[in-house]
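#onboarding

Welcome to the new folks! Below is a worked example of what a typical request in this channel looks like: someone posts a single protein sequence, and someone else replies with the predicted structure as tokens. Don't worry about understanding the tokens yet, we'll cover that in week two.

Example request:
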Amino acid sequence: MKRSLFAVLALLALLAGGVALYLIRSPAPAPDRFAQCRTDQTALGGSQIGGPFTLVSETGETVTDADIVTGPTLIYFGYTFCPDVCPLDNTRNAQAVYLLDERGYDVTPVFISIDPGRDTPELLAQFTEYMHPRMIGLTGTPEQVAAASRAYRTFYSVQDPEEEFYLIDHSTLSYLVFPEIGFVEHFKRDVTPADMADRIACFVDSL
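Example response:
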């Protein structure tokens, strides 16, 4: 009986030693350089958000994420025929970028269409020019758009696709992305232009 107890205690000691050694050798998680800029800690799991994409620009050229994300970039997924949230959200994003322009921050707003059947490059060019002169409109094949949407974990679903003036349900987050780093933060619809500008400036200053 004593031998069995001794064996159990020895095994527990060995396991404890192994765990301690693992903890000592395991590198500590890197500190979040953007911690002071965040108001929503869910973005800390952003390593699974974002990634490579290949789309068609509003000028008709095939582009990749490396061509688009060359500096601080604000990405939104929507469609030009959207009757409500898309114009409002993109106007808010454009206003934030204008505020950042005044403060010397160069941020590129990007609009990725989830409606490749109707949103031609020409139509996207008209939409983005109205919003902000630096806003980039992107479309592509249905497969290319779906792949970009999956990369950013966005959602969209066409209502009554047989109807001429169909609507599309979709998510409405805006994504702040940096080259080489990737996704760093998302912004919900209730964020004001001023708050968005302040938070983006914080992220840029923390690079």
